[in-house]
């Protein structure tokens, strides 16, 4: 029986291993983590991660060929294939602060593997790491090897939060990168055989090690760039009276461009896009390519600009003052159908409004109050350290209240910001909402999900990203 | 009988009107231009524009319902629909120099239309113009109207040089923008009925006027950005030992990104990409959006960087000196299957090498020697003035020779630069070429069309964009 051990029971490791276990009944899969509460949660009825379909997959395999354990060393020693799926947070101080990936957890995982191994192993990079990390890991393993042979593979993940299980069942591609030596190719084949249980072979791409690592970063950079590009166009549409939805539709009809990821919004979120671009920028700078680094930095700059622009629009619309005014925020997750708030634009928008002393009332169908309070209290990138190392008991932000109902959030509010495209926000009773708001009543649609004409008929002043501006908004230009 | 008149017999107007005439036998189409030689060429057996399939289309309709004439005023007066397809060169001095479109020709066309019109007309913007030009044109027409009603429509072209006829027969989309008034909508319908003769209605998009104008600029900016993005990645691949073809293939497999326009190269060319992005940048700046302007400028910067990087690689590889050395350039057109050299990267590469005093021998199967000499002598953007206003008899550059055979170009050369992906360059006898070159012999493949392994076996030192570097090249790093 082939044994797989996955170090790291987070968003990447957990779902991936669950799907492997489901699709490969002949393989024993153990997910290990040093976080006892997390492992206990995986073994309970309330999994620590919410993903549609994940519960079902785990319950079919858990106890059969899928196990969750804190006994890291035992299972690493016994494994044939070790996936390393630890966090790679962005550094917050020192060289590369704000850009470079912190490889502390990765390095300690490699050292532990070298310490406990008693047989040859395939070590697979599953988390996102800078190009050439495999070389560094290989050096650590080789210099501590005691005669054991390690093959390092790169197998970056391409999951999208909210559709992780679906992405794992039918991936656009599975990338496997390895050394182009006989041993390297053999290791690649072993991993390929695992995925071939359910993924068509033409979607399993094997490339040299560096190409595989770059492909993940590049793919996410390309996707994020599409969003930033249409967001950049949305600003121009507002300035010229054009309509970004029409422009994006026409652009997307060009089959060389395609229609996906062309929805203008308040900004992209999620743990991957910003982090992968910052990694890419850092790698470019380390390789003496400042022109390329600047190019990719612009994707982040436009994303930040879009969020700032949105906040400025809110404040300037209300006579440049929101101090003491209640502003409702509908949606906190970085996209619908997930409770994930990593890098969500809602954090930046809320902080922007709090900076102007607004009172914020937040409703999101899935994000917990604890999470919201934690997000608004912590500094950027803290979320990417393991949970047990995150700041505990942050002081609750007093200007913020979290409610369990959209109508409660909007009661007595001056303005309403829609920041996540949850389906339920499209079908709210906006007349009822309008009746209970202060006047003039504003809707700031950061996701272009409301019908602005209908809302204007009700009496709202509506701002939709990239759409021709209301007369009121034209007379109150937002100035950064 | 509906009468269409097209002002401007260039790359856009000529082919477009020819296809309309072919597909709409019940419509009389007249293409007019003040350039007598150009009109005479359209009426001869040697058309002034080379496009596959164009000869056949023109000869089927010319004299039947397609005519070419210099009697501009007569045909404008008689027309029901007037397409304005004049050049909009980039300004070379004054406000917006290097970025803004020069609307001199557009404005004079509008004034002439107002002067000679005796009946209501639909005026269609066909050439690329900044957003809101329709407003300016409308003002000119209205203030000179003498009671005649004009409807201004935007109908930007999306042709790609080299596949213009194919693009016109089966367009990804036809965009028609007009005022959202009853008269405006009626005019849009008239133009839509023309295209509906052969274009499925679901591909004919009608949007408000501003969205239509922005869509053309945005579509080209998105396409150019894809090329610059993969070119940016190619620089990183060279620095890290990755392979850009593998990375691009993996990225393109993601259906949200798609596989088109992900070929790394020495840079994009053609009259559209650079010009449309510069227009977009200028419009952003005029609308007080410096962040957005900077974002799109980066697409141009990376393109310039890629060309500079290529030249630096050539010079650095040859001991930092190419003075007096013969360098062969294979391919001058901005892409294969065309004689079009507008904004071709070959111009910048050749000028870079000439700046270092190299002797250049150029072969291109379709570009004329006159064109090459003219391109290398003139300043940027001069090509976008009508031919009869371009500088005449530029001094031939002594360091440049144009030959009619690849083997002649490479004889006695130190290096070969492949700058256009002509099919014939893939099947040259490289052993024969190698035997007749100075040693060490270099191939710099700016289009990734040669097999570097085979060439290395022959004895060449090969540089391919975005591929792992030859040992020789690694030891001679290019420094910008």
Automatic annotation (TrEMBL), chain A:
Its EC number is 1.1.1.22. The gene is LOC100279549. Belongs to the UDP-glucose/GDP-mannose dehydrogenase family. Keywords: NAD, Oxidoreductase. PANTHER family: UDP-GLUCOSE 6-DEHYDROGENASE (PTHR11374:SF3), UDP-GLUCOSE DEHYDROGENASE/UDP-MANNAC DEHYDROGENASE (PTHR11374). GO terms for cellular component: nucleus. NAD(+) binds at residues 8-13, 33, 38, 86-90, 127-128, 161, 272-275, 342. InterPro entries: 6-PGluconate_DH-like_C_sf, NAD(P)-bd_dom_sf, UDP-Glc/GDP-Man, UDP-Glc/GDP-Man_DH_C, UDP-Glc/GDP-Man_DH_C_sf, UDP-Glc/GDP-Man_DH_dimer, UDP-Glc/GDP-Man_DH_N, UDPglc_DH_euk. The active site is at 272 (nucleophile). SUPFAM superfamilies: 6-phosphogluconate dehydrogenase C-terminal domain-like, NAD(P)-binding Rossmann-fold domains, UDP-glucose/GDP-mannose dehydrogenase C-terminal domain. The keyword Amino-acid biosynthesis does not apply. Residues 328-452 form the UDP-glucose/GDP-mannose dehydrogenase C-terminal domain. Involved in the biosynthesis of UDP-glucuronic acid (UDP-GlcA), providing nucleotide sugars for cell-wall polymers. It is an enzyme of class 1 (oxidoreductase). GO terms for biological process: glycosaminoglycan biosynthetic process; UDP-glucuronate biosynthetic process. Pathway: Nucleotide-sugar biosynthesis; UDP-alpha-D-glucuronate biosynthesis; UDP-alpha-D-glucuronate from UDP-alpha-D-glucose: step 1/1. The keyword Isomerase does not apply. This is UDP-glucose 6-dehydrogenase. It catalyses: UDP-alpha-D-glucose + 2 NAD(+) + H2O = UDP-alpha-D-glucuronate + 2 NADH + 3 H(+). One of its GO terms (molecular function) is UDP-glucose 6-dehydrogenase activity.
From TrEMBL, chain B:
Its EC number is 1.1.1.22. NAD(+) binds at residues 8-13, 33, 38, 86-90, 127-128, 161, 272-275, 342. One of its GO terms (cellular component) is nucleus. The active site is at residue 272. Keywords: NAD, Oxidoreductase. It catalyses: UDP-alpha-D-glucose + 2 NAD(+) + H2O = UDP-alpha-D-glucuronate + 2 NADH + 3 H(+). One of its GO terms (biological process) is UDP-glucuronate biosynthetic process. It holds the Pfam family UDPG_MGDP_dh. Pathway: Nucleotide-sugar biosynthesis; UDP-alpha-D-glucuronate biosynthesis; UDP-alpha-D-glucuronate from UDP-alpha-D-glucose: step 1/1. SUPFAM superfamilies: 6-phosphogluconate dehydrogenase C-terminal domain-like (SSF48179), NAD(P)-binding Rossmann-fold domains (SSF51735), UDP-glucose/GDP-mannose dehydrogenase C-terminal domain (SSF52413). It is an enzyme of class 1 (oxidoreductase). The keyword Ubl conjugation does not apply. One of its GO terms (molecular function) is NAD binding. The keyword NAD applies. Belongs to the UDP-glucose/GDP-mannose dehydrogenase family. This is UDP-glucose 6-dehydrogenase. It comes from Zea mays (Maize). The lineage of its organism: Eukaryota, Viridiplantae, Streptophyta, Embryophyta, Tracheophyta.
């Amino acid at each position: 029986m082939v044994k797989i051990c996955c170090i790291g029971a987070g968003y990447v490791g957990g779902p991936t291993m669950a799907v492997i276990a489901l699709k490969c009944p002949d393989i024993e899969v153990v997910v290990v983590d040093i976080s006892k509460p997390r492992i206990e949660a995986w073994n309970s009825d309330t999994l620590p991660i919410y993903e549609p379909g994940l519960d079902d997959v785990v319950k079919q395999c858990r106890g059969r060929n899928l196990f969750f354990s804190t006994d890291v060393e035992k299972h690493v020693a016994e494994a044939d294939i070790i996936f390393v799926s630890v966090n790679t947070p962005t550094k917050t101080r020192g060289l590369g602060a704000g850009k470079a990936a912190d490889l502390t957890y990765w390095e300690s995982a490699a050292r532990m593997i070298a310490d406990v191994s008693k047989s040859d192993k395939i070590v697979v990079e599953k988390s996102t790491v800078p190009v050439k990390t495999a070389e560094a890991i290989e050096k650590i393993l080789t210099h501590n090897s005691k005669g054991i042979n390690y093959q390092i593979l790169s197998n970056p993940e391409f999951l999208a939060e909210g559709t992780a299980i679906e992405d794992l069942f039918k991936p656009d591609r599975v990338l496997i990168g390895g050394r182009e030596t006989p041993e390297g190719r053999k290791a690649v084949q072993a991993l390929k055989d695992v995925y071939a249980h359910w993924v068509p072979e033409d979607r399993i791409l094997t490339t040299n090690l560096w190409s595989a690592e770059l492909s993940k970063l590049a793919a996410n950079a390309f996707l994020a760039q599409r969003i930033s590009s249409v967001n950049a166009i949305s600003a121009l549409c507002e300035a010229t009276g054009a309509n970004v939805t029409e422009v994006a539709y026409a652009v997307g009809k060009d089959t060389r461009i395609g229609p996906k990821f062309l929805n203008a919004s308040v900004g992209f979120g999620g743990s991957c896009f910003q982090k992968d671009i910052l990694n890419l920028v850092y790698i470019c700078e380390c390789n003496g390519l400042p022109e390329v680094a600047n190019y990719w930095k612009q994707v982040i700059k436009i994303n930040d600009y879009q969020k700032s622009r949105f906040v400025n629009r809110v404040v300037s619309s209300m006579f440049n003052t929101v101090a003491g005014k209640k502003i409702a925020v509908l949606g906190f997750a970085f996209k619908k159908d997930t409770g994930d708030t990593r890098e969500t634009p809602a954090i930046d928008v809320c902080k922007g409004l709090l900076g102007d002393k607004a009172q914020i009332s937040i409703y999101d169908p899935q994000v917990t109050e604890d999470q919201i309070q934690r997000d608004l209290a912590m500094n950027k990138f803290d979320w990417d350290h393991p949970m047990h190392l995150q700041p505990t008991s942050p002081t609750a932000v007093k200007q913020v209240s979290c409610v369990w109902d959209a109508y409660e959030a909007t009661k007595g509010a001056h303005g309403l910001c829609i920041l996540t495209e949850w389906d339920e926000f499209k079908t709210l009773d906006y007349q009822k909402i309008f009746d209970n708001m202060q006047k003039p009543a504003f809707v700031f649609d950061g996701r272009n999900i409301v019908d602005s004409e209908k809302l204007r008929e009700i009496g709202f002043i509506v701002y939709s990203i990239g759409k021709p501006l209301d007369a009121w908004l034209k007379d109150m230009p937002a100035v950064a």
